[in-house]
Amino acid sequence: xxxSNGQPRSRPADRGPGYSQSLERGLAILAAFGPxxxxxxxxxLAQDLGLTRSTTHRYAATLASLGYLEQDGPxxxxxxxxxxxxxxxxxxxxxxxxxxxxxxxxxxxxTTGYTxxxxxxxxxxxxxxxxxxxxxxxxxxxEFTLHVGSRLPSYCSATGKALLAFLPAxxxxxxxxRIDLVQRGPRTLTGKDALxxxxxxxxxxxxxxxxxxxxxxxxxxxxxxxxxxxxxxxxVNVAIPWSPVTMSExxxxxxxxxxxxxxxxxxxxx
Length: 270
What we know:
This protein folds into two domains: 2-80, Winged helix-like DNA-binding domain superfamily/Winged helix DNA-binding domain (Arc Repressor Mutant, subunit A, Orthogonal Bundle), CATH 1.10.10.10; 86-266, Beta-Lactamase (2-Layer Sandwich), CATH 3.30.450.40. The protein is built from eight helices and ten strands. The protein has helices at residues 21-31, 42-49, 53-65, 82-112, 158-164, 169-177, 192-205, 247-266, and strands spanning 2-4, 7-9, 69-71, 78-80, 115-122, 125-132, 151-153, 208-211, 218-226, 232-241. The strands form three sheets. The chain has a six-stranded antiparallel sheet, sandwiched between helices. Strands 1-2 form a two-stranded antiparallel ribbon. The chain has a two-stranded antiparallel ribbon with strand order 3-4. A hairpin with a 2-residue loop joins strand 1 and strand 2 (7-9). The longest helix has 31 residues, at 82-112.
């Protein structure tokens, strides 16, 4: 065990095959700071974490370059940086959003039979922050690999397009310049102009679609969730395995329920 703020910190008993020791060490460095220890040097951090000075310095320098730590020039000691606050505020907002959305997602799934998801944008991806599995036989095989916390590319997912569409034009342009529009499914939009045209349609209709763009035989329909100020803060969707029903018919059938769900979440947001 290592210590933080004078208290022992236990480690997970079952790390599993996907466990990241590097991530654990980075988070342990952030957790070492507190109200009574606002600044720490490399020697103190290394002792707390049971690491060598060189290893600790490498992690601290990386966190500083990303904005999660700041280093005082004269003393060379570290303190928490502004991006840690961003993490905290994002988490608080996501928790409130999940609590409000949960019963509405369950109702949406009960109504449609399909898996429903709540997603937020994180840079070029979307993150699923809640989901309700649909009835057996009414979901796509990809859904077995998805869970709360899963990341999906925004450009080829319905929730992603619902979130991208309402960004300011300049911000959207800069973001798309950093996205590699690679083919993911048989109908992925790999041209920027084609994607921009679709995002314009999302702005007009308030509905975003994914028609086998993320994965073969998977469709989805999404609607944006707005805060009280009108800013789009999340998106809800239903995931629909392919069927002979046309995409436009699916939008007509399920679009109103999605928009109603998004509206019900929005009016309860502070």
